[in-house]
Design a protein that fits this description.
Blueprint: H1 3-9, H2 50-62, E1 67-71, H3 74-82, E2 90-94, H4 99-108, E3 115-119, H5 126-130, E4 135-141, H6 153-162, E5 166-170, E6 188-192, E7 206-210, H7 213-226, H8 232-242, H9 245-264, E8 269-273, H10 283-289, E9 296-301, H11 304-312, E10 319-320, E11 330-332, H12 344-349, E12 356-360, H13 366-377
Amino acid sequence: MRFATKALRVGQELDPKYRAVIQPLYQSATFGWEDLDHIPDIDYTRCQNPNRKTLEEVIAALENGKHAVLFASGMAAIVGAFSLLKHGDHLLMATDIYGGTFRVGEKLLPRQGISVSEFCAHNPLSINDAVQPNTKLLIFETPTNPNLRVSDIEAVVKIAKSHGLIVVFDNTFASPALQNPLDLGVDIVVHSTTKYISGHSDVIGGAAVTNNPEYYTAIYEWNKAVGAVPSPFDCWLSLRGVKTLAVRMAQHCKNAQAIAEYLSDHPKVSKVHYPGLPSHPDHAVAKKQMKGFGGMLAFEVNGGTEAARKLAESTEVFLLAESLGGVESLIGYPPLMSHATMTEEQRVSKGIPGSLLRVSVGIEDVQDLIDDLDQALAKI
């Protein structure tokens, strides 16, 4: 089966009793045993649930993976991948990384005796200088949040593997519709399923996908032990949402490309970060490894922090809100939202100035979105 068909059909046979087309919601904490001689596959929802099991099968299939573990949030999935680390290990984290991942690396892992340092994913050779004798795991993302830089996944994996590292990759921004990092050698792909996979801004969730049975078992057992699991209803909602992932991503990409081109010609915009623009420094890499350039973009405005804040508060169709990947368009201000955990000095060093705005382009009529940005830009 091809991608769009997988999203609709994998693990989703007709209900055997009533032949319901949509899987029933199994809103039950516990499931009965027939006897004590046969342990059922599903007996308690913290461990597994029919809705969760089906969604895990779908997401694994979409990422061309064999195993998936679902979590209560994307950050829980990332921490689940980090559960492979132990006291005395060292983690390599990309300099361009989501603020929540940065927070875990800076504040939480050191408490567990796990050291963390950075490498530049745009320069894979930097791994050679950053790796330490106790380095066990490396994590990066592309396109990056919020600067939309694109790294050569295969090149990063090749050097990481030469040092025997476990490679974790956050595929949230692209979604499995646009790239499949497991095919490029990544060991574990993580997602915030809150975003494009669910697609409707009505559920929080996460996933970790792998082809390695040992990593899968370790992450699943960690999740079962700590209970960072999604509810059956959250899984049911995500199953509904993922059915339209292919068509949604096509429209996200189309709209984002048009908006990026509009912004790149606007006199009040100093820089546009979108890999679909030929002027983007990583356009060639993105074209090589992605099936589309995505629905996320960022741009910088003339006038600095004051102008950026004014614009963010002036849109009418774009909603001023955190998160991304829903059908509705959102505009965000990273210094107070996705990367608020960083100091101003840290943000500036990572290319996140006060003049930067991040946009999650939805599936509305693109002319309405352009008109909205036009009227907001006129106010700064």
